[in-house]
Please model this.
Amino acid sequence: QDRLVESGGGLVQAGDSLRLSCVASGRMFSNNGMGWFRQAPGKERELVASISWNGGNTNYLDAVKGRFTISRDNAKNILYLQMNNLKPDDTAVYYCAASRLAAATGAMNMYRYWGQGTQVTVSS
Model:
């Protein structure tokens, strides 16, 4: 069964670091672009970062550039999001998703599979 399961969220202080993981099962992972999205209370879901199928290309939300790093380990079917220097505005539920495309993409409608999310809360 194709599924994505996120983990690694938690409650941290501003300036702290956190690494999120997304473990994939099924056949979709190695040939698909992947993305991390987040949704804060009362706000729309937004793309945080995306990565191509082989990790060769990445894209980031401007607000997280220089602080967050997306990576993947295709041998283990795991997607990562390293988050450094966290800010209160980073507070959200973070979701991983697998794209229909091999390339990195910010188009939400291209993502076929979604995880259930992991909560990240950053206090001042």
In short: The two ends are 40 Å apart (CA to CA). The mean pLDDT is 94.
